[in-house]
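Internal ticket #5521
Category: modeling
Description: The requester needs a full-assembly model to guide mutagenesis choices. All entity lines are attached below as received. Residue total reported by intake: 819.
Assigned to: D.W.
Attached entities:
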Amino acid sequence: MSAKAKKKKGPTTTKVQEERKVLEAPLIPVYVMGKRYEVPEGLTLMKAMEYAGYRFIRGCGCRGGTCGACGTVYRKPGDYKLQVALACQKTVEPDMYITQIPFFPANRAQYEFAELISAPEEVFKLYPELFRCVACNACTKACPQKIEVMDAISALKQGNIAEASRLSFECIQCGLCTSRCFGELAQYHMFQLARRIYGARIVSRAEHLAEMVKAVNEGKYDDSLNELKRAKKDKLEKLYQEREEEPVTAGEDWKPRDTTYL
Amino acid sequence: MSYLGYPDFFKPYIKKVEETRPARLEKRRRGEEFPFMSLKERQEMLKYHPDYKEEGRREIKVGPNKGYRIAHEFVDLLEAKSRIDPDEVDLSRVDYETDVLVIGGGGAATIAALVAEESGAQVLMATKLRHGDANTMMAEGGIQAATKREKDSPYYHYLDVMGGGHFKNDPDIVATFVKRAPDALQWLENLGVLFSKFPDGRLESMHGGGTCRKRMHYCADLSGMEIMRVVRDEARNRPNIKVLEFSPAVELILNEHGQCAGALLYNMETEEYLVARAKAVIVATGGAGRLHVQGFMTTNHYGATADGVIIGYRAGVPLSFMHTVQYHPTGVVFPEQIEGWLITERFRAEGADIVNVYGEKFVNEREPRDVESARFIKECLDGKGVPTPTGKVGVWLDSPMLDVLHGEGRVRTAFMGKWKVYDRLGIDISRAPMLVYPTLHYQNGGLTDNAECETVVPGLYVAGEVTGGLHGENRLMGNSLMDIVVFGRIAGKNAAVFAREKAREGKLTLKHVKEYHKELKEAGIKTDRVAPMLLPDYTSPEVKERQLTVSRPGTSR
């Protein structure tokens, strides 16, 4: 929507505008890719850049810390140390230098998932560079999710797919670990492979799910569903209100009294 | 200084919650629930829901739903011009050629692409941001399917879906949905999605608002992210799926036989418009939270701007259920940095109480989302909300109860995503409650289709949040993630079949856009608005005043 159109939109104060009022906080200097801007204290890096006038095409995604689009490196004055953050999560600090890394050209192996078996060798074969890891721990320090990246890589090297899956479960695949890796590993792609092998080949299958799928395919619920589809609104409302509620505190062994429609 | 990580301002209010907590825990242990409202009481309560505010909406003056009253923010975009002048586009110069074009890059789009490819089609995905940048990635709570035969069945799932949607949902779509849900879940399990399971492989499950059986399955509190990561990974393995990022569709292209035959794409980085020709098209562009309906904050992704609704409507697809928008009851009110963020319903499903400024319960935590939201708004209007130092108001979600009810460490392990976000801000939510208020969450309605994902335009299929019908007037938790799997698969399959068997060669046209422009003119709408808007604009007013040339209609700024 153009700027002009937005202005015409009427007099209502929106929550967004109210938020701006709140942001009449003291201004602090930050350096976006080296260029100085003054932004209100308390803003996230992302909102600070928008405040300064940037409009994102890249480097902005869910704005909630789960998509990995806004990986950012920054440095504070007087400190040689390069730090990392998600722009949508980290709040601005005076005089920080920030640069986004919206894309990183990491190596990803192509594979036929159906042919993979539950062996660590599958990972070794697809990602032989796994063994280039020198255990420097730069990846762990670069993880905005505070994942023990190096430990998860060590687990993979030892063939422990389950442990690597568990440790990497919260990975948002932002690629910051890879950007800092001395051995040039694409850790997050390796973890993705490990988790899929773990989920499909190692973890026990849900037998009750397979049974339900079978029952549905055999048409077991067709009649009762057709009955509901044909039901008038008042009949549906009655059935709805009479539904037996499984108590919140019930255990896995809870069973309903009425089993007609199971 | 601070109390449990909150500014001292909150100390007396948090103390109140702590004071009433032991007695409330005792009730939880005894299985004593706050009574649910009757259907009549729910209807009364909905008067407090933003959907029921008449001044928040107006009639659309053009298109297949002329006269339909929906939110201004939607009408503004529907009563806007195309980004392009149809006469300026050279449709004889085709830039991309494919069997099935999938518009969108989230869960529904990716799943549709996978199944279309399995059905033998060449697939091109065109998406606005990166592949996977979508609301799917942010869905936390879970995914519904009846999987435990000893206590649940598609029959009960059907009743819950209908009751949640005020019995207005499309019965065919709902029946297909509940029937195909278990199979869809197994399909995900086969792809390696890591569901939370017991050691014997049995899926963990729990309640959501409006469910009568514990049918919500989940992957810790990162369900959508886990599903999105896996299906995207699988799509990357398929040589016949090509992905174009940062290239949203800005118009659908039809052919002389009236079939959908592609789309005009816009490379947002080079600002080129490119023609993609296809034998079938799937629109799976997701929702619209970034329109900030009625000024509400949103839980949605940066790209949730109703693009699919706009281009589909221009091509002649009617809208359904667009008069309702879902406000998630529990969005963060404080701290400011995460305002609007979603706090998953699972906290309530597991037994965390909602309490007011006096530390009192006033609602059952598992009412359908619209009723629950309306009830929160009423409580705050009645002066029983908790104020914030920034002039806002909310109610408490008493998360520390879960560590008592389910064992020390429950919040930290079962809600690790949320725990970490708060921890970064200095608040430990296993010790301190969270302050919440309704936040714009989901587009209940959208483009009208049937249980086969077909629209009135032959060759045009739709799936996911962009559609309307499954959820009626209000979606239940866990049915959106299942929606994208069930109907993503159906759309993918049917589009591939259409491409192979029914698509006809024919001249490409944007005639429908010209006609739409004509209709706008005849309706007396004079505007320089263009749509789809593609990205929200959060530039500050001060900066905007100095940006003398960026408001040129159709540019990416």
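Resolution: model delivered.
Comment from assignee: The longest strand of chain B covers residues 272-283.
Ticket closed.
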